[in-house]
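Quick one: structure tokens for this chain, please?
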Amino acid sequence: MKIAIVGSGYVGLVTGTCFSEVGIDIVCVDIDQKKIENLKKGIVPIFEPGLEEMLTRNMKKGRLNFSTSVAEALEDCEALFIAVGTPPDEDGSADLKYVLAVARDCGRLMTDYLLVVTKSTVPVGTADKVKNAIQEELNTRGVSIPFDVASNPEFLKEGAAIEDFLKPDRIVIGVESHRAETLMRSLYKPFTLNGHPIIFMDITSAEMTKYAANSMLATKISFMNDIANLCEIVGADINNVRKGIGSDSRIGSKFIYPGIGYGGSCFPKDVQALIRTAGEFKYDLRVLKAVEAVNKDQKLVLFNKIIKYFNGDIKDKTIALWGLSFKPQTDDMREAPALVIVKKLLEAGAKVNVYDPVALKEAKHHFGDTVSYFNDQYETLIDADCLALITEWPEFRFPNFKIMKKLLSNAVIFDGRNIYDREEIKQQDFQYFCIGIDTAR
């Protein structure tokens, strides 16, 4: 079986590489010629644990290839996955121009039956637009070639995407024909042999499932952050509250850790897009609007704690930041809390030292020369007035507090992810501020 993946970003590369791992012939297509040239050399444009090794292995076996030509990819191809970007417009809606451009390419170039699968995160109704775009091109050519459209949303966690694809919680597929279902079932058979469920449904429901899933997870995060802020006010300990509610099987322990807001390429964009979709149908998603508002405010919580500690004046203070990516095990800084925090610190006149295990290159695209970059976490602390922990990378969990105290000019830590034990920190003679606990009490 041969399939094409159009779009060689995060979703496209992981999808294509994992399919090739089980023996399927894959051609990954992208219009960025430089990216394709690099991929042919085994140079991966994103950081994802395990991806580069798997990609290189399958390239050597001849199962994974890269091209800038959709026409080349369609030769003897049974299915084409659309995995291009769907960036948000100013109004929050998903921009479908790249998705529909691929659909039109299919209509212009296909010569035999083709199953076109939307893998990109797209709003309800996109499959119909894809189908219409393909049919319009076929009509222009004056040919009648059978095709199907399907929806196969991705549920990959950045930092664990390979494991998620190979051992999925579930595989959701929206189809409207038996032929499409049979082909998709065959394609995913290697991933369901160990009992991982595959769920077939109508296309509209599949499109909605992706947005609903991410919106539910975003809701849990914002809810816990809202409760954490209340805990500080009333004197409760959010860590105890989290354990108390997380033990309820109806709630569970995942996504209820307090912090400084969610970011990344999925949650912010998908929440906005679902709100927008609801608005188009004259329905007000009040809960999700609150989720979005809480998240926006939460990204300022750590900055406000720093300002309060320094009595409203951080001009010429040096603030050291550990972690810049929106979560560990990725270099992705899209919608990362660090973007908001650094901007506010600079606006207030502070000097900012930053360190991240893998995101420094990406950070330079955002911050330029406005901050100081370091390749060692401890070097960021030299003569700094405080440390602010932004991303909970594993290497930050057990630092050498004695070295930290010697390097910092002021022994104070602002923990945006609650990864430290406050009693242990106090025993090290640090002042400690975190989320959801009034450490002054």
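The two ends are 64 Å apart (CA to CA).
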